[in-house]
C-alpha cells in the first residue's frame, strides 16, 4: 500500500509539473474568480486522497497563475483518479474538464528519458539490447535490431510519418 501511495504521489507530481510547463504563453485566470474544478475517483480505495490532490492542484495553479492544471493517477495501469482546476478557455470562460486535452510539447521527452533511466537502473532494460527482446511482435520485423539507445537518441532511422514509405509499419503503428 505504501508503494502504491508513493507511486500515486510521484505520478500526481509529474502530472502537475507537466501541466505547469511554461512552453507557451498563457492568459492567467483572474485570481478573485471562483474557478471551476472537477474531481473523479475511479477506484474507491483511493477516494481519501482525492481532496488532498485537488488542494495541491488549486495551490499550484494559483502559485503559477496558470489558467488550468490537471492531473491523473493510475496504479498498475488502471486509472484511479483524475482532477482539474481552472479554465480551458479563459476568454470564453469555458471550464477545463478531466477530458480537456492540453498541449505538452516536448515535455514527454524528459518523462520518457526519466522512465528509461529508471528501467536501466533497475536492470529491466539494457540500452544496447535489440528491442525485439522486449517487444517480440513488432509492427515491422525490420525494427527488431533497433535498440532503446537508438530510439531514445532519435538515431534509429525511422522516418517521420509524412515520409514513411513502410506502409505496413505505419498502418500497424
What does this structure look like?
The chain is α+β, with helices and mostly antiparallel strands and about 170 residues long. The chain folds into 2 domains: about 1-100; about 110-170, no CATH class. Helices cover about 35% and strands about 15% of the residues. It is built from 5 helices and 4 strands, in the order αβαβββααα. It has helices spanning about 1-20, 45-65, 105-120, 150, 165-170; strands at about 35-40, 70-75, 80-90, 95. Strands 1, 2, 3 and 4 form a 4-stranded antiparallel β-sheet that branches. Strand 2 (about 70-75) and strand 3 form a beta hairpin. The radius of gyration is 20 Å and the shape is elongated.
Amount of beta strand? 15-25%
Shape: elongated
Structural class: alpha+beta
**Element-level helix/strand string:** HEHEEEHHH
How many whole angstroms does the radius of gyration measure? 20 Å
Q: Which tags fit this structure?
A:
single chain; 173 residues; alpha+beta; elongated; disordered N terminus
The gist of it:
This protein folds into two domains: 2-102; 110-172, no CATH class. Helix content is 36%, strand content 16%. It has helices at residues 2-20, 47-64, 107-121, 148-152, 167-172, and strands spanning 37-41, 68-75, 78-89, 94-95.
What is the topological layout?
Elements: H1 2-20, E1 37-41, H2 47-64, E2 68-75, E3 78-89, E4 94-95, H3 107-121, H4 148-152, H5 167-172
Antiparallel strand pairs: 1-3, 2-3, 3-4
Amino acid at each position: 500500500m505504501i508503494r502504491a501511495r508513493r507511486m500515486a504521489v510521484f505520478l500526481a507530481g509529474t502530472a502537475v509539473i507537466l501541466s505547469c510547463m511554461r512552453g507557451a504563453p498563457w492568459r492567467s485566470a483572474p485570481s478573485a474568480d471562483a474557478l471551476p474544478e472537477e474531481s473523479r475517483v475511479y477506484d474507491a480505495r483511493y477516494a481519501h486522497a482525492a481532496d488532498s490532490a485537488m488542494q495541491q492542484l488549486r495551490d499550484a495553479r494559483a502559485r503559477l497563475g496558470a489558467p488550468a492544471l490537471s492531473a491523473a493517477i493510475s496504479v498498475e495501469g488502471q486509472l484511479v483518479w483524475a482532477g482539474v482546476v481552472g479554465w480551458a478557455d479563459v476568454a470564453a470562460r469555458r471550464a477545463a474538464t478531466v477530458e480537456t486535452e492540453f498541449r505538452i510539447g516536448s515535455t514527454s521527452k524528459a518523462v520518457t528519458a526519466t522512465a528509461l533511466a529508471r528501467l536501466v537502473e533497475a536492470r529491466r532494460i539494457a540500452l544496447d539490447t535489440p528491442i525485439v527482446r522486449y517487444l517480440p511482435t513488432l509492427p515491422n520485423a525490420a525494427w527488431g535490431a533497433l535498440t532503446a539507445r537508438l530510439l531514445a537518441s532519435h538515431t534509429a532511422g525511422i522516418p517521420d510519418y509524412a515520409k514513411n514509405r513502410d506502409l505496413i509499419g505505419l498502418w500497424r503503428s
